[in-house]
């Protein structure tokens, strides 16, 4: 997002620019105003805008004087000149100051936005250049040999065979006895949103950018070689090396590097990371221990305490955790989804999530395991209900979920709950479609349901979701068949039942109200009077008097 500063002593012009500019489309989230060049310079220092639009003729300090100062003190600042005077002196200074465009008053929408688009395009290009200077040219890194990465991966996976591949160790400096090794692990919590908004939906480009930032942030004493973990979604591994150093010193320096990297990734790209640091070792072949320790730190981050900001895990002993499983609730979920009641299914899942939220500790690793378990359980349930296997994720992995257009980011527990709800909604839709194709609809089923559940809060959505039919169509069919609307029929059944219950003098009106599904006695009495033109008490008295006669 960008900031734009408008400097003009005429308020109507500032207001016109504010109204005519396509700010949202240009990703401008803040438009500032100043009345002359002097106050404009103060705004520059205070707010650091990305683009300035300046009038050439103003009191205190005119546009020419302003541009001369900007040219010296803010050489990178982009400017657009506005003037009601087609004066050569103004134009000459504008050209000298390399302004983006020169607009004449009165400003029109097309010229304004064309100039703004040109400026924003240049700003985007400058940001890209700055990113490339920090990341040291992504294209170059993409051409780096993969052999070094494969060597490290085989060591981390404990599959490297030294007797057959010892010659490759020199590529990672393992023939240098003074080198110390260790591992940093970065889990990108908001990978999908950042990839789509900042990296043109290119996951590989995002990984390279992160890896290059890590490498660039390395200092003279601690060097990193970074790469995405091909077997672990969202994870970037950084193997750090140092010539000598005590374990405690290397741990401190690697933790400082980790903090610097997560802060830079956040400010530069908006990336939210969970990081973990592994202890150093003297032998490259012992890196697997360091990686497992760093990975454990990441997976042990308490999701209940995450607030959408970067976090660095520790290797402290984790508290005793509750084991949460949805297995016991699956029969209820199956019944609700089979009946087409997504609202009840969400309530069941919500209660389960609420129990998890009340735990003392729930880690990122616990969240990963829960997602895998839920997908397996839902797959089994959906298969039994006739959903084709090609409509379900083959596993609980993120790639499988995303292949069905499910967003899997979560950087807080609220976002994790949102992901679980999205998974539930996806399976509900597949079950609905499958059962709709196999279920014959009979409007008598709705009448029978009302006759047996009149004391419940009956909503038409219960039937529309169950039978995969529109609300209007269902209501029309029901009225054609029975002469009542669905809500009218619910009311009729309740009132007919109310008469029967009022004939039993042993029942209090409050009890009858509750038996009919009314939580409020007064509301029941009002509904009864509207229907029969007498109150429940009056009706009961009339019946009693009639019995005496």
From TrEMBL:
Protein name per UniProt: Two-component system response regulator YesN
Taxonomic superkingdom: Bacteria
GO CC entries: cytoplasm
Domain HTH araC/xylS-type span(s) in chain numbering: 444-542
Main location: cytoplasm
Keyword Cell cycle in record: no
Modified residues (4-aspartylphosphate): 55
Any single biological process term in GO: phosphorelay signal transduction system
Ranges of residues in domain Response regulatory: 3-120
UniProt entry tagged with the keyword Cytoplasm: yes
Subcellular locations according to the entry: Cytoplasm
UniProt source species: Fontibacillus phaseoli
InterPro entries: CheY-like_superfamily, Homeodomain-like_sf, HptR, HTH_AraC, HTH_AraC-typ_CS, Sig_transdc_resp-reg_receiver, Tscrpt_reg_AraC-type_HTH
Alphabetized SUPFAM superfamilies for the sequence: CheY-like, Homeodomain-like
Keywords: Cytoplasm, DNA-binding, Phosphoprotein, Transcription, Transcription regulation, Two-component regulatory system
Any one GO MF annotation of this record: sequence-specific DNA binding
Lineage, top ranks: Bacteria, Bacillati, Bacillota, Bacilli, Bacillales
């Amino acid at each position: 997002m960008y900031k734009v500063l408008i400097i003009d002593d005429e308020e109507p012009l500032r207001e016109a620019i504010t109204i005519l500019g396509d700010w949202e489309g240009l990703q401008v989230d803040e438009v500032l105003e100043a009345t002359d060049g002097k106050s404009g310079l103060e705004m520059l220092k205070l707010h650091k805008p990305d683009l300035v639009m300046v009038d050439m003729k103003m009191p205190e300090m005119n546009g020419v004087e302003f541009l001369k100062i900007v040219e010296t003190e803010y050489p990178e600042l982009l400017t657009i000149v506005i003037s009601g005077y087609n004066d050569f002196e103004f134009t000459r200074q504008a050209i000298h100051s390399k302004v983006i465009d020169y607009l004449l008053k009165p400003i029109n929408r097309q010229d304004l936005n064309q100039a703004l688009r040109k400026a924003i395009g240049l700003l985007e290009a400058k940001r890209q250049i700055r990113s490339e200077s920090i990341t040291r040219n992504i294209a170059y890194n993409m051409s780096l040999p993969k052999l070094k990465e494969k060597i490290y991966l085989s060591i981390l996976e404990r599959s490297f065979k030294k007797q057959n591949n010892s010659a490759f160790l020199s590529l990672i400096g393992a023939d240098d006895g003074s080198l110390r090794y260790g591992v940093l692990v970065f889990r990108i919590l908001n990978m999908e949103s950042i990839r789509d908004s900042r990296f043109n939906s290119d996951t590989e480009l995002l990984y390279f950018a992160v890896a290059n930032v890590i490498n660039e942030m390395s200092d003279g004493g601690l060097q990193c070689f970074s790469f995405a973990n091909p077997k672990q979604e969202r994870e970037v591994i950084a193997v750090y090396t140092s010539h000598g150093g005590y374990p405690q010193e290397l741990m401190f320096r690697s933790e400082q590097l980790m903090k610097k990297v997560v802060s830079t990734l956040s400010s530069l790209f908006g990336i939210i990371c969970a990081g973990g640091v592994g202890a150093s070792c003297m032998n490259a072949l012992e890196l697997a221990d360091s990686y497992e320790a760093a990975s454990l730190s990441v997976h042990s981050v308490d999701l209940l305490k995450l607030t959408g900001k970067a976090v660095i895990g520790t290797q402290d002993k984790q508290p005793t955790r509750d084991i949460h499983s949805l297995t016991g609730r699956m029969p209820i979920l199956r019944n609700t989804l089979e009946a087409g009641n997504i609202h009840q299914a969400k309530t069941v899942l919500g209660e389960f999530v609420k129990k998890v939220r009340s735990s003392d500790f729930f880690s990122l690793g616990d969240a990963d395991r829960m997602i895998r378990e839920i997908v397996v359980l839902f797959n089994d349930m959906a298969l039994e209900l006739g959903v084709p296997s090609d409509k379900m994720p083959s596993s609980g992995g993120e790639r499988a979920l995303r292949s069905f257009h499910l967003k899997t980011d979560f950087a807080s527990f609220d976002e994790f709950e949102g992901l679980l709800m999205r998974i539930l909604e996806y399976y509900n839709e597949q079950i609905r479609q499958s059962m709709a194709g196999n279920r014959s609809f009979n409007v008598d089923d709705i009448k029978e349901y009302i006759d047996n559940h009149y004391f419940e809060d009956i909503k038409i959505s219960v039937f529309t979701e169950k039978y995969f039919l529109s609300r209007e169509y269902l209501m029309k069919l029901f009225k054609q068949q029975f002469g009542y609307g669905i809500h009218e029929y619910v009311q009729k059944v309740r009132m007919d039942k109310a008469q029967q219950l009022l004939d039993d003098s042993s029942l209090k009106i409050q009890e009858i109200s509750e038996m009919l599904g009314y939580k409020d006695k007064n509301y029941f009495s009002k509904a009864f009077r509207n229907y029969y033109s007498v109150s429940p008490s009056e009706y009961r008295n009339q019946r009693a008097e009639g019995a005496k006669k």
